[in-house]
Automatic annotation (TrEMBL):
Organism: Mycolicibacterium flavescens
Membrane spanning stretches: 12-36, 42-62
Every YiaAB two helix domain range: 12-64
Lineage start: Bacteria, Bacillati, Actinomycetota, Actinomycetes, Mycobacteriales
Highest taxon, organism lineage: Bacteria
Protein name per its UniProtKB record: YiaAB two helix domain-containing protein
InterPro entries: YiaAB (IPR008024)
Keywords associated with the record: Membrane, Transmembrane, Transmembrane helix
Amino acid sequence: MDTITNRSTPAYFLQAAIAFGVSLLGMLGGILFLPLDPWQRLFLGMTALFLVTSSFTLAKVIRDQQEAATVRVRLDEARIERLIAEHDPFNAAT
């Protein structure tokens, strides 16, 4: 059984890491340098922190669901192959 592995290239990983870093720094720079009151800065900071952590959580949940689906599919395929291998069409049903 051939398994297809979806691996990210190092360049794609680097691009994603750089994009995340630039966007995070831009957001933090905006929070720090915008003319805001301290309570507004804290509100934006808490919101940004929640957004970043929930993004990581969402990515992990999606990855876990995809991995579970592939394992489930492999188990189902193995079960079907075993049933087909054990089936004898010339044996009379009793």
